[in-house]
Amino acid sequence: MADQGSxxxxxxxxxxxxxxxxxxxxxxxxxxxxxxxMQGLDFFYLLRK
Amino acid sequence: xxxxxxxxxxxxxxxxALGTFVGLLLLPLFLSLPxxxxxxxxxxxxxxxxxxxxxxxxxPVEKSRDIWYKTEGPVVGAPAPKTTDxxxxxxxxxxxxxxxxxxxxxxxxxxxSFVLAVPIFCMVIEYLGIITKDKALARxxxxxxxxxxxxxxTAYSLTAILGGILVFTYLTLYPTFFGYLASIFRxxxxxxxxxxxxxxxxxxxxxxxxxxxxxxxxxxxxxxxSVVLNMIGTxxxxxxxxxxxxxxxxxxxxxxxxxLGNIWHVIHTTxxxxxxxxxxxxxxxxxxxxxxxxxxxxxxxxxxxxxxxxYDWMGYVAMFIGVCFLIPLPFAGYWLMRExxxxxxxxxxxxxxxxxxxxxxxxxxxxxSLFLTTNYYxxxxxxxxxxxxxxxxxxxxxxxxxxxxxxxxxxxxxxxMTPGELKAMGGQQHxxxxxxxxxxxxxxxxxxxxxxxxxxxIMYQRGNKVPxxxxxxxxxxxxxxxxxxxxxxxxxxxxxxxYIPANVRVGLSVPQVATTxxxxxxxxxxxxxxxxxxxxxxxxxxxxxxxxxxxALIMLATAFTWMMGLMGYIRSSVRLFxxxxxxMRDNSPWAFTHTIxxxxxxxxxxxxxxxxxxxxxxxxxxxxIKKAPVAAxxxxxxxxxxxxx
Lengths: 49, 645
Prior knowledge:
The complex is a heterodimer. Chain A is mainly alpha-helical. Chain A has a domain at 10-37. Chain A has helices at 10-38, 45-48. Chain A is elongated. In chain A, 16% of the residues are buried. Chain B is built from 21 helices and six strands. In chain B, the strands form three sheets. In chain B, strands 1-2 form a two-stranded antiparallel sheet. In chain B, strands 3-4 form a two-stranded antiparallel sheet. In chain B, strands 5-6 form a two-stranded antiparallel ribbon. In chain B, a hairpin with a 6-residue loop joins strand 1 (63-65) and strand 2. In chain B, helix 1 packs parallel to helix 7 (216-248), helix 4 packs across helix 5 and helix 13 packs antiparallel against helix 20 (547-573). The A-B interface holds A 1-5, 8, 12-13, 16-17, 19-25, 27-28, 31-32, 35-36, 38-39, 41-42, 45-46 and B 466-470, 472-474, 476-478, 480-482, 484-486, 489, 493, 496, 499-501, 503-504, 507-508, 510-511, 514-515, 518, 533, 535.
């Protein structure tokens, strides 16, 4: 049971990291948008102005 | 099979008992639902009944309108007395009566909070001890629960004595006001006294029956008794809360303060439930802090490594519980403030933007220092673990982030200045630093501080472990991605707030908080799952930690105490010159708001007084030790929360 992290290539690690960053960005943007909508506020106010 | 069934039965009973307690904790939330809050049908069910013939000389029953619920009810009480400054209404010594009452109230509250919170920890830990299959671990949990209740018991007598002092102070220095309050709350006060007797009886049986009810079914009876104990304690606290809530947002009386016969309206004022929830959570955080300080004290005075290991672990568990309740506390506070604004907007403005606003700056400093200290303790705790050196290099960056955010967090919006200083600065706001005095910056700062604390905890969980699950690289990448984007999101939203109108900006605080909570729940849960079956680089050496970490625990407890005194003062003084808001005016010579300096000195005095007396309680508790701590040799594995070890 060695550390699994050392058994994968650097390329895979980078791919995981980029994938995670994209996933987290989508999640937090959706969260921001949904919670502002719930309050009846426009999250993209500045863009629409 | 029979054993299994027995085990299952025991678990069902335990869940039922705990479910009852959780239900009771949630009771205030259910009571706050609109149906309950509306006050129900206003008594005149009799109006549908056929009219009863009245004697010709019978005096008609006077009816009046409830000041809050707006329902009609029969006048059954006298109007609120109109007091005058003199020995009849305000008898006094050659001293400010309000200050004497302040000390008596605050001390009773400190001890009351402590003895209500500690049995809750005790109940949970004793329950953990019962369901744990490992007998050695079960004994350790049991010992810890016993240690908790032992401290609480000694403090309990002092709480009762302080309660007596408080009542005598009211009766002798504010007799007219107290008479009015007692005339309205008469049945509640009697119920309170009876519940106090029940609480005392249960507590003493619970404590002294510990050894006798050690095994089998009796142990379940014992743990169920802790549920009963906590139920009574929670109801006691809620009843006492109804008095202060009535003083701040009266209901159940008319505009002259005459009682209208509905005791539920008087208890269930608009601020009662927010205060209940805020106090339960606050008591838990405070109780955790005090027990952690007790453990630190015992650690520092320990003579053997075994004792040191035990109290190091105890301090960690108590600190963990305290911080778990510290995190939701601001949200409960937010609800309370929202209800204050909904009740009287002017009251909210006095608190947050007027006379008392500077006290909130002090509160900000206290909150910041609480989080800094928590992080410091966790970093010090890494010393206990072999292999944790890998994380030391990140601490300096975390310190930088925390200090930067702390400075932004405590930057005031405007300063009190001389005309010369005002001219030199070019206005009330500093051209650069003034930008950090607004809520956009502060929301960003506090959320970054909490997120960094979560990161410190995740680092601590991993201290001496390396995840071995197959998906560990993916999990690590996800944690990295989530925290990176979370920081960007929090700070991005804070900057975004500068470019949009105030009515949209206020909404940004919700996604910021949600981001922080996402990191807390997803991050800690994911990390805990990843660490299941992880490779250990070495055991956690409990007791082998710097003394600085123990002073950090004492600092945490002191900060909790100071903040509790401060927030209590703020909530109470917002009534300004009213005994009962808009009903009974305070006509004593002390119906003014103190200066910030005086208030801060008084709070410090109360904190100092509490800590001197509680040290005495700790010392007293240590005299009667009959049970030696269960041996936990240095380096031995002992249980900790969150499945971290």
